[in-house]
Amino acid sequence: MSEFRKGAVGAVVFLLTLVGVEIYFFYSFLTHGLLVKYGYSVGILYYNLPYLLMFLLLLTVVSVVIAAIVYGFVKRRSWTRKFSLFFLIWAMLWPIWSILVWNYIIEQVILLVVYALLILYLLSSFAREYFRNIFRYGKYTLYRREVVLKSGKKLTIYFFSEHEPKSGVPCAMPEGYTVGINPRSNMPYLEKYYPGVYKYGRYTLYKKRVTLESGKTLTIYFFSDHKPKSGTPTGMPDGYVVGINPRSKMPYLKKKRGFRGFSSEKVVIESSDKAADSRNNRGEKDMEEKSRKPSNVIYVVNKPQPGHVRGDWAVRSHGKIFSHHRTKQAAIKEARKIAKEREATVMVQNTDGTFGMGFKPRTKKR
Fold first, then answer.
1. What one-character-per-residue DSSP string does 260-327 give?
2. pLDDT of 254-274, one tens digit each?
3. Structural domain boundaries of the chain?
4. Rounded to two decimals, what is the model's pTM?
């Protein structure tokens, strides 16, 4: 039997014993106990209003206290142990009083022993284990289970369950964790708590570092409504604000207007919905183009060379300038010819200095 079930069985036995003892106490009190000792009976209570009200008050107080103790045991409230101890100590005064002034000594000694046993149970490790701090999230309870890996290491697993599992014990929330919700199953789970993490609605901002073939390291920021396979939660980087993709309604980061801050690392912003975010698609294709061999790319650039006027268009590769042209259309036409011969891709420079996605000229079918 697990520790959890042992504690539950002990709690049930305690409550049944307590309720039974209190019922018997009132029965003996009315039939042959202290009430009879002082010359009263049940019939007299009906005609003596003050004594009747006093008895009803005592009965009401005891009933409310018993109900509170039962509620505390069922809900596993931390105050229940101390509250029950105070009540049992107060209840022990009645059999002690009866032993001192009445003849039914054995009966009262038995009641006194039962109260003492109930107090010992509340002071035992079983009761402390039963009332330890247990974390609950709605109808789910947090459980802890230790598993042994093939390497021999012990690993502690935390999980939520609506009912009692086959293995595992209820536990408190471990430090450094918070509750997350699985968007598919709506089940709670534990995730590490990162102070200063930026959240936008149900989305959390993550970052991850990727290393390109050239050896450069990029930091990518993206939003996600669930825990991704890679990446750690992070705060909002300086100089960025949140934008909303009009198609997917997903948040993404974009630079503030007029921000000229300096960053020691190169940053790439992407949305968690890559298929719907056209900006992210362009970024991926740009990275693919950059990773191609230089000999397979022909550039059309709008950068003046020495001896030429501003506005000239040049057709070049990484290591060679092929020609200069006055217009962009003429430069693209020449770049197409060279690209067909080399089976290369043409990339045209935009007005802001960046390059477009590029195109590969079609070869004529033979």
1. ----SSEEEE--S-TTT-HHHHHHHHHHHHHTS-GGGEEEEE--PPTTS-TT-EEEE-SS-EEEEESS
2. 888 765 554 444 455 554 444
3. 3-130, 136-192, 199-287, 292-348
4. 0.44
